[in-house]
């Protein structure tokens, strides 16, 4: 693939667009960004704040610690952090530079002011509307489909900004329809290092720092540490532990930024850290590592393109497959090895559900990475899953499409049920039924 090819530019743009820093889990950070922007539009510290959010946002914010808040969780905490101390100009790093004194101000504001959280009355999977009021003045900022995709800004009933048809699903992101495994591998092999070195090196630096934090200190359920203690220090375990430890820290409020993939820090760490660990063990060149990470990241982005930003399907599965592809590449694998690795891995872990961001994400990441590694070793041992085995069909791209349909359409009701369970709606319905 040549630099002046259209596909080359598309794939390069995807990396620039998707591999960006974020401080904290991206859904609460998106809430904080919307609230910080609304406060900026209002021009003063508001008396009240109302957040309308889709079920998937509520699901992904409910149980995760918001960074730089002193351990607070939930939508109200994320919104107030954005209002009181957020810097909207930094987007997904909106809460990245909060000083210690501001943390107490966030808690004081939460105690003294009303923050209302309401379910959104629409079918948009990713929806946040932040409305802030001070006296007779109010401002609303609406985000749809993607974490920083503001589609509307309104102040005192007057629309200051509104996206037209470009606000449809995808949020104006680079078109993903041309993605396929063969071209992704071609791009990884041929991309000029100067075009991707800064992007990939930032991913290595940021994500390794968070992983090290997770292994050194007490975060979440300490899955990374447990893996090393229980299973030893072989490369397969180290690869799983590195990614899990990053999630341990991040889900529990670690204030270090990570480089995300497809809107998710957990996916960004899962797609990168196992590949980095294998690169160390195999003593490959920096160039080989960069190209393997390009492959892993784009493979993850490709799978998520058919699923969407949020779903009942665990995104770590997609990233674990990406990591498996990157590991196969580090071992000298070509298209056949990589394609079989992806299909095998998808057949193993595509049943993992997403029940929001929280400490158990680290354990799911470990399983997803393990499936990616096993998928590669299956091929090495002349074993594979065949078309017709469950959701697996002939060809890696066709199997990826099947998974996209399963995750986006087939698991829609599963997603609703998960949200009901998390919000205790199911027990309420059962009680009502029992009473009748």
Automatic annotation (TrEMBL):
GO terms for molecular function: L-cysteine desulfhydrase activity. It comes from Sporolactobacillus inulinus CASD. InterPro entries: Ser_deHydtase-like_asu (IPR005130), UPF0597 (IPR021144). Pfam families: SDH_alpha (PF03313). Belongs to the UPF0597 family. Residues 137-419 form the Serine dehydratase-like alpha subunit domain. This is UPF0597 protein SINU_00450. One of its GO terms (biological process) is L-cysteine catabolic process to pyruvate. Signal peptide: none annotated.
